[in-house]
Amino acid sequence: MFKRLNFVLIAFVTATLLFTSHNTASANDTIKVFVNTKEVVVDPKPTIKNGRTLVPLRFVSEYLGNVVKWDSKKKIVTIIYSIENTNYTVILPIGQKTATKTSSSYLNNHGPEDVEHIQLDVPSQIINGRTVVPLRFLGELLGIDVRWDYQNTDIYISSLGVNLIPSDFEKAVYNKELRKVRDFGKPTVHYEKFLALDADHFNSIDLDYLFARKPSVDLFGAPVAFRDGVNEIIISGPIKTNYLNMMIYKGKDLPILSYSNVTAESTATIKEGMTYDEVIKILGGPGVLSGKGTLREEYKWVSSVEKGEAYITFVKRDNSLYVTPSPYRSYTWEKIY
Fold this sequence. Notes:
Blueprint: H1 15-21, E1 33-35, E2 38-40, E3 47-49, E4 52-56, H2 57-63, E5 67-71, E6 76-83, E7 86-93, E8 98-105, E9 115-119, E10 125-127, E11 130-134, H3 135-142, E12 145-149, E13 154-158, H4 191-196, H5 204-211, E14 216-217, E15 223-227, E16 232-240, E17 243-250, E18 258-259, H6 264-268, H7 276-283, E19 288-292, E20 296-303, E21 308-317, E22 320-323, E23 332-335
Parallel strand pairs: 1-13, 18-20
Antiparallel strand pairs: 1-2, 3-4, 4-11, 5-6, 6-7, 7-8, 8-9, 10-11, 12-13, 14-15, 15-16, 16-17, 17-19, 19-20, 20-21, 21-22, 21-23
């Protein structure tokens, strides 16, 4: 049994709008399925019946990672899954519109109050020898986000917190230049994405589209970082339209510029109010952009003679950069161990 994060299902559209008003999909259309931005092969292909999309039961176990059991004599499907510290068991009789959901924690067994009866719009059924179940029901049941792309008649499923579909990309709500960035719309984190984010015209929707997920949050619910297990982008302060307090990049792909002039002693000579050009003369060359905001930028210098690196924060004023104190790293020397 493995744990799953509990993601809220976005009821994006109703089936009536999907299959009648918009008239963009029919039972004969070729429907593609994408899970966490990757196309998956569903066999047999999803079918539409009575205005609902049905997917094979095997899809639940292969791509959504849940335990599925089939009782061929009683014709009953059992789905077992976990969300955080709670186990769930769902009994789904074939041909019926009522499923029974039972929950229990790791510490306590379930009681009568933990049994829930769920109504389906379309019953689970057997088509061409395969057991199929309503996809929308599975989304609500498992806490995943299911969306339908009207334009391409495709299904998009996500457990990442943000579910983007191609027709979204046609909307003028994000920075179009981001489309050129490597891994656009994927949850990876790298230096190219950090550079692509415009600190002067910042919009939180850009983050959603670029990473296809929400950042991790602190105890108070404020966004703090994007991480992919290797690299991370740390956000300080609230995210506002056209304003970014500070965003720091920490990653293995951050370029390294090292100079013999970069030492603890030379870093100590840098004072508030110095220009970026003056700092370059002291440290022997330009630094690497490691942090940026609407009002500030941070640069990193690495020593080629000592085990250490310098971080200098500058304020942007009159099209120039000036050394400034900040609540972050400000003309500091850090040892490398």
